[in-house]
Structures are given as C-alpha cells and as structure tokens.
Write a structure and sequence with these properties.
Length: about 300
C-alpha cells in the first residue's frame, strides 16, 4: 500500500505545554484511520498539523510526499475537512453554501453546479436544495458539511467528531456514506469519542493520551492484545472477590462492579453462580471501549 501521511517524532508545543509529544504513525492510501483519546490527548492538534493550519514544533510530517511546512497550499488543495463545529452560513440555502465554498477552489461554476447536485443527491439532501440552514435538523447539517468537504474531490477526507450530537439514525446514515466513500478509493482520517463508531469504521487506529500514542493497530488486534475476548461483569461483594481469588481469575474492580477478563466466560459465570450466588452477573464480548478505559483510565476529563 502507498503511504499517504507519514509522521516521524512529531512534536507540537504551546509555550511550555507539549500537546503532541514525539508521535510517529503512517496512514495508507484508501484506508480509514482513526485517532482516539480523552479530551486533551492531542488528537485535534495532530489533525490540525495534517491540515497545515498549525505548524509543527519539531519532527517531520509529510502528506502526499510533501513536507507540510513547505507545501501547505498544494496539500490543502487535496484535503476535504469536516470540523467538529457546525459552521455553515445560516443566510444561505444548502445549494448556496456549497456554491460559495466551491469558489475557494476556483471550480468553474458549471462544474461546481454539477458536483453540488451530485453531492446533495449522494447525501440524501436533494429535497433540501433551496432550504435555509436554520431549517435543517442536526443530522442534515452534518451531512451538508460532509458534502461541502467533498466539493473539491479531495484525496484525503479529514473528520473531527463527524457524528457528534446525532441520533442513531443520523449516525448510521453518515457511517454508510463514509464506507461508500472509502469503497470509492477515498482515504479518511477521523477523530471520535464513540468507541462503537471507531470499531465499526476504522481499518486501523491509534489511542492517544497526554500527547503520546499508547497503542496502534486494527480494532480487533487492540481488543485481543489488551483485554482478551470476553468480559464477565458481576457485583462487587467480599464473597465474589473471594471466589475470584480462589479461581486465580484476572479481574478489576470499578466501584460496585467487578470485571473478569477471560476467554471462558461461561465457565467463569457458572463457577461464580455455584460458589458465591451473586444477584447479578453479565457476560459479554470485550470491546474497544474496554481497551480505551484500561489504557486511559476512568477519571472524567474536561
């Protein structure tokens, strides 16, 4: 595969504060690559450096084999960006928002109109063609921003929290569109706080914290190597802890819940029922969220 983004020992400092601390990663052409991490982990800062809107402090970063410090204009020409905030012009219709944006790329009006009609249709927004932005739902606005990011036919699509605040139906529709775009050959880089979104969409991802990359790989690889295949959750009581100690089980306590990491969930559950009679017990597959919480902790970040 062709490497389309290449970061080596990437550092970004704001005065004495280090937001990104010597990270290295690559993104291959045609893959969907994710950045995960708690607030303040360095995800958005890294994305801004890829977008050539925040200069790096040290290390190297190339996009399309071009140094971001030397060729920002050339790189930006081939990027489509979906920001976290909704920044559409409320005084314009859907069509007018896209038309105005197309002028930043010097797209001839006839060609711009053709692309806009196709994108509105692709995003299931054709019936909102002449509707003002304030009359759109949150999901429609996010789809329109995604359409706007595609107006210049970018080689890399960069999305910062693309489904933030959306209901399940709107999220699933955007997921469907992103997978279709990837199938058409687009390279997609995203940040998200939704673990199910990352697990469903990403070919590869990194989990960051305090400006560093903690792990990288496919969702399946990260789950298997960090927490195993299954989790048994049971109430936290002295009897349960005694049973687990007698079983030499690998467990962690989180408040009133004990999580047992195991490859044999039925056997563990049966022994707990037989030996210590818990009121509630629940067995499930391990997920990317388990990996995330294990590596970054459960403390609230603002």
């Amino acid at each position: 595969m062709t490497v389309i983004i290449d970061a080596r020992n990437l550092v970004k400092k704001y005065g004495a504060f280090t937001a990104v601390d010597g990270i290295s990663f690559t993104v291959e052409e045609g893959e969907l690559f994710g950045f995960l991490g708690p607030n303040g982990a360095g995800k958005t800062t890294t994305m801004k450096m890829i977008q050539c809107i925040s200069p790096l402090t040290s290390g190297s970063l190339s996009v399309f084999d071009m140094n971001v410090s030397l060729f920002p204009r050339e790189i930006k020409r081939h990027l489509g960006v979906v920001p976290q905030e909704t920044n559409l012009d409320p005084e314009f219709t859907c069509f007018e928002n896209l038309l105005v944006y197309s002028r930043y790329f010097n797209i001839p009006k006839r060609e711009a109109v053709r692309r806009i009609e196709e994108l509105l249709d692709f995003m299931s927004l054709q019936e909102k063609h002449d509707v003002l932005i304030d009359r759109l739902s949150g999901g429609m606005k996010r789809r329109l921003i995604l359409a706007r990011a595609l107006i210049n036919e970018p080689r890399i699509l960069i999305l910062d929290e693309p489904t933030i605040g959306l209901d399940p139906q709107a999220r699933h529709l955007i997921w469907e569109k992103l997978k279709l775009l990837q199938a058409q050959g687009n390279t997609i880089v995203l940040t998200t706080h939704y673990m199910d979104e990352a697990e469903r969409l990403c070919n590869r991802l990194v989990i960051m914290d305090n400006g560093k990359i903690l792990v990288n790989g496919s969702p399946g690889e990260l789950v298997g190597s960090n927490v195993g295949t299954d989790i048994v959750e049971v109430e936290h009581t002295p009897d349960v802890i005694a049973c687990l100690e007698a079983m030499n089980a690998h467990y962690e306590v989180f408040g009133d819940i004990v999580q047992v990491i195991t490859g044999k969930p039925r056997e563990v559950a049966d022994r707990l029922f037989d030996s210590c009679h818990p009121v509630r017990i629940y067995a499930r597959r391990a997920t990317l969220e388990d990996v995330f919480l294990k590596l970054t902790g459960r403390a609230l970040r603002d």
